[in-house]
Amino acid sequence: MFRNYLKIGFRNIIKEKFYSTINIMGLAVGMACTLIILAYIIHETSYDAQHSDVDRLHRVNMTAIWTPGRDIMSSTPPSVAQALLNEYPEVESVLRINTPGAMQVSFVQDDKVDRAFNETGILAADSNFFDFFAFDLKEGDKRTALKEKNTAVISDEMAEKYFGDESPIGKVLLFGDDRIPVKVTGVTTKQASNLHFNFDFLLSIYTNENIKKMEWSWIWTQVVTYVKLKEGTSAAALGSKLYQLAPKYAVKAFQRLGIDIDEFQREKGQLNFYLQPVRDIHLYSANVGNRIGPVSDVAYIYIFASVALFIMIIACINFMNLSTARATVRAKEIGVRKVMGSQRIYLIFQFLTESIMMSFLATLLGLGILEIIRMTVIESIIVDFEIQLFSDPILTIFLLLMPLLIGIIAGSYPAFYLTSFNAAGALKGNMKTGKKSLYLRNGLVILQFVISVTLISCTVIVYDQLNYFNEKNLGYDKENILVINFAEKLGPKLESYRNKLESYSSIKDATVGMSVPGRASFEDFLNPVGSSDDKIPVATLKIDEHYIDAFNIEVLAGRDFSKSNPTDINGTIINETAMHSFGWTIDNVIGQKISYYGESQYEVIGVVKDYHFAPLRFTIAPHAFFHIDSDMWGDFRVVALKVDAQNAQNVLSYAESEWKKYAEGAPFNFSFLEEEHARQYESERRTGKLFSVFTIITVLIACIGLFGLAAYTIEQRRKEIGIRKVLGSPVSTLVLMLNGGFTKLVLIAFLISIPVAWYAMEQWLQQFPFRIPLNIGTFILGGILAIVITWLTVGFQSLRAAKANPVDTLRDE
C-alpha cells in the first residue's frame, strides 16, 4: 500500500509541475535559511565548550573603576589571583592573562633583521595556561612551554609568517623597542573560531616585567584573572563571599599610594569582584568591559531564532495555501476514490505521503540553496563560520527529522481539508468550503504579512541606526585622516618627521598625539586643586599644539596649546563635561587648576566643545588634553595627517618613504580614521546584513504564499469572473476587484505589525545612548512596500484571469 502511495505521489508531483515546483521551492528556501540560522546559533552557543572542566572555569570580573558609565569590567589587578587562592579553599587554581599591547616583533638572522612586523595579537599568561584552555600544540610541550621567562607559544600562522617551512622551536624573536629576546617553545594548531579569545603570540607572563613590578597593586588593572573551582563548589556561594576580598587585601596597596580606600569606594562604588562562567563570556558580556576577544549578545540569538521560526511558519503556510489552491483540480480524484470505497484515513495518508515526499525533495533542493546562500552571502558577512551539517549531531538530527516533521505539519491541513469533501459534491466539482476555511486562509496570509512587514520595518530601522552612526556629527573631523601608528619608535626624530610631512603639498595638517578620537582612552583620577573630595575619572590624552586644529575640534573658551607659551607644558584643555563635573562654569573655568593625586598641578587654559572621543555606544565622559611634553603618563605616539582626498595614495607613499629614512628598520603601520570608525560598528553592521538577507527571503516566501492564495481565490471565482466579463465588466475593474481583497489583508497585517515592530525596535535601540527616534513614517514605508509587493505578486494572476475567455470558464454551465 505504501508503495502505491509513493507511486501516486510521484505521478501527482509530475502532473502538476508548475505548482509542485513552487511548493517545493518555497519549502526549500525556508529549510535552507532555517539550517543556516540554526548552524549560526549552534556556533554562537558553542563558545569555549571544548575546554576540559569548562563548567568549573570562571572569569573574575570587578567593579569598573576606570570606565565611566559601566558597572563591571573584566580587567583585574595582578594581585587578585593570589588573594583568591589564599582566602578561598574552594578555588583549585588561578590563571592570569596580560595584554602587553601592540609591539614590534622581529626575527634576526645572521646579525641582521630578517623579518619585522608590528603585531597586535600578543598576550602573556601564567605557566598553567594550557591546564585551563584547550589550545592544542603541534610542536612543543604544554607542561613546560611557558615555565621560563622570555618564552612564547606562537600560532601556526605566525610560525609560517616568520619562519616559513622551518620549525620555529628554539628560535628567538625580538619583542618591542627594547628588543627583548623571546625563545619560541611551542606552536599551536589552527585555533578554533569559537573561543572567546585567540592569540598570535602567548608570552610567559613575567616576560612583561611590569607584572612583577605591579603585583602589589590593587588598581593597576592590566590582567584578566580566571579561576578553576574545586569539584562540587557552588560558584554562586563563592561569589557571594568575594566582597570580603578588597577590605582584607587592598588596604595596604591603597595606603602605599596615599589613597584612603573608603574614600575611593565612596567615589567609585564598592570595589567588588564577580564570577562569570567562561561559557557565558561570549554571549553575556555585552555590558562588561571586555579586555580580550570580541563578544556578541545573547539577544541576537533570540532574534535569529525567532526569524528562523517565522521563516518556517511562512513556508508551511505557503504549502497549505498552495495545496488548497489546487483542491478543485483533484476534486474528481477524491470523489472517485470515495465512491470506490476508499476510507478517509487512507486518503489522509495519501496526501500526507505526498506532502512528506515534497518535503524530502525540498530538503535536497534546500541543501543546494543553502550552499549557494553560504558562498554568495553568508561568507561575506560572517568570518570563520562554517556550516558542518553532518559533523554536528544537532544539525544532523535536525536535517533527518525536519523533512518528516515539516511534511506532516505543512501537509496536515490540506490532507484533512481535501478529504473532507463529500463524494457527490467532489464529482460535480461543487466544493464549497465555507467561511471557516476562508477565515483560516485569510488569517494565515495576515500572519505571513504581519511577520513580513514587521521584519521590513525592523530592517529599515536597523539600517537607519547604522547610517546615523556614520553621519552623526562627532564633534571632530574623521574624513581624510591618515594615522601613522607606533610613531614612538621614531624617538627624538618624531618632530622632524612631522615637520617633513607637514611640508608636503597634499597634507593640510600634521599632528602628534598619544592616540586619535575613537580609540581606547587613558583614564585616571583628577580633582580640582583645593578640593580633595571631588576626584573624578577623566579620560586623558597628550597632544601637541596642532592636534585640535587638525581634527577641527571647537574651542569654546580660552585657547589651544601654543609653542610660544612654554608654560603650556603644565596646562590642560578640558571638555564641557569635565568642566561641569568639576563644578565650574564657562565664565570661571579658565585659570582653574586640577591635580593628579596631589603630585602635579595643571592650569586650565581652554575648554573644547564635547565631542565623541569614544564610540557612540558610550555617553560622553569627562576628558582632558595635556601637552605632549607634560609629565602625565603615556609614551604611545601616533602621527595624524589631514590629507587631500584625491591624493591620499600619494601621501601614503610619501609618508612611508620618509618613515624608512627616519625609523631605522621599524615597520610602517598606518590606518585611515574613517575606516577605523566604520569597524567600531562591525558587529551591528554584520547583524544588520544578516537580518536584511533573511528579511528579503522571508518576504519572498510570503509572496509565494500570496501567489498560492491568489491562485485559489481566482480558481474559486472563475465562473463569477466569466459572468462579470460577459455582462461588460472591463479588465481593469476585474483586476481591482481581485486585488482589493488581498490589499485589505495586507493593510490589516500592517496595522497589527506597527506595535509589534515598534516594541521590538524600542528594545533594540535601548542599548545605544545615541540613537534615532522611532518615526511612524518608517512603519508606513514598510506597509507601502508590502502593498507594492502584494500588487506585483497578485497582479499577474489577476490580469491573466481577467483576460481569460469567458467561454472557457462558463462552458460547464
Task: Give an overview of the whole structure.
With 813 residues, the chain is of the alpha+beta class. The protein has three domains: 2-42 and 298-469 and 682-810, no CATH class; 54-289, no CATH class; 481-679, no CATH class. Helix content is 48%, strand content 17%. The chain has 26 helices and 25 strands. Strands 1, 2, 3, 4, 5, 6, 7, 8, 9, 10, 11, 12, 13 and 14 form a 14-stranded mixed β-sheet that branches. Strands 17-18-23-20-22-21 form a six-stranded mixed beta barrel. Strand 1 and strand 2 (72-73) form a beta hairpin. Helix 13 packs across helix 14 (393-418), helix 17 runs antiparallel to helix 20 (648-662) and helix 24 (731-765) packs antiparallel against helix 25 (776-803). The radius of gyration is 34 Å and the shape is elongated. The two termini are 39 Å apart.
Short description:
The chain is of the alpha+beta class and 813 residues long.
Structure summary, number of beta strands:
25
Kindly report how far apart the N and C termini lie. 39 Å
Structural class: alpha+beta
Based on Cα principal axes, name the global outline: elongated
Domain MacB-like periplasmic core: 20-241, 446-611
Membrane topology: Multi-pass membrane protein
Organism: Splendidivirga corallicola
Keywords: Cell membrane, Membrane, Transmembrane, Transmembrane helix
List keywords for this structure.
48% helix, 26 helices, elongated, 813 residues, six-stranded mixed β-barrel, 14-stranded mixed sheet
Topology:
Blueprint: H1 2-15, H2 17-45, E1 57-63, E2 72-73, H3 80-87, E3 91-98, E4 103-109, E5 112-119, E6 122-125, H4 129-132, E7 137-140, E8 151-154, H5 156-163, E9 172-175, E10 180-188, E11 201-204, H6 209-213, E12 223-229, H7 235-239, H8 245-249, H9 251-256, H10 261-268, E13 273-277, E14 288-289, H11 298-325, H12 331-339, H13 344-381, H14 393-418, H15 423-428, H16 434-471, E15 481-484, H17 494-502, E16 507-513, E17 522-528, E18 536-543, H18 547-550, E19 555-558, E20 571-575, H19 576-581, E21 593-596, E22 600-608, E23 623-627, E24 638-643, H20 648-662, E25 670-672, H21 673-679, H22 682-716, H23 718-726, H24 731-765, H25 776-803, H26 806-810
Parallel strand pairs: 2-14, 6-11, 8-10, 18-23, 20-22
Antiparallel strand pairs: 1-2, 1-12, 1-13, 3-6, 3-12, 4-5, 4-9, 7-10, 8-11, 9-10, 15-24, 15-25, 16-24, 17-18, 17-21, 19-22, 20-23, 21-22
Subcellular location: Cell membrane
Keywords: Cell membrane, Membrane, Transmembrane, Transmembrane helix
Main location: membrane
